[in-house]
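Example 3.2
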Amino acid sequence: MDQSERSAALMSLLGCTDASANALGQTMQFHTFPAKTVLCHQGDQIEDLWLILSGSLQLQTLSIEGQATVISTFGPGELVGAFPQENEQGFDILTSERAKALQIGARALTAIMERHPDLGPGLAAIFAGQLDRVLDRLSARVSLTANGRFYRELLRHAGNREIISPPPVISAIALLAQTTRETGSRAVSALERRGIVSRDPQQLTIVSRRMLEDLIV
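Structure, written as tokens:
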């Protein structure tokens, strides 16, 4: 990714001026990460912040018993890492699929923001949106059944698509829903029996989105 592409992406994502995007883009480093790359381990001191361009990053915590729980998943246009200064991470940061991101040190970003304050509103809007989604997932964990959480994550994975190809990995959806792979498998089988979804090795088709939404309880 060259400098002009970085600036264009930053202007689009942050709503900043060309000068601010250029200053930020010159400092950020472009990376491509394979799936399942660990960017930071739980307990690490990190100073870096990643702006995701494509793919997704997960925040995942491990219990004393070794049980993995996904706190949240972030995608294109979102920020993951340390800010406004380095800190000790309470979770693993890893790619859930192949991802591209721009990386910058937290202190370097703070210094650039002092010279280019128009970066502030765009960054604040991204962080506010992410906080809202994390709180939404926490609310679901408290108020929804395991099956309801799984169905909600399945719909989120589908977005506006009726056909998901290749079909989603049940264990990955279950992890996002904070439930087990077995629960996820039983939930999908129940959907198939009722004709709400159909499945084959190539794709999963949502036959009735409304009926699937009604099961999110």
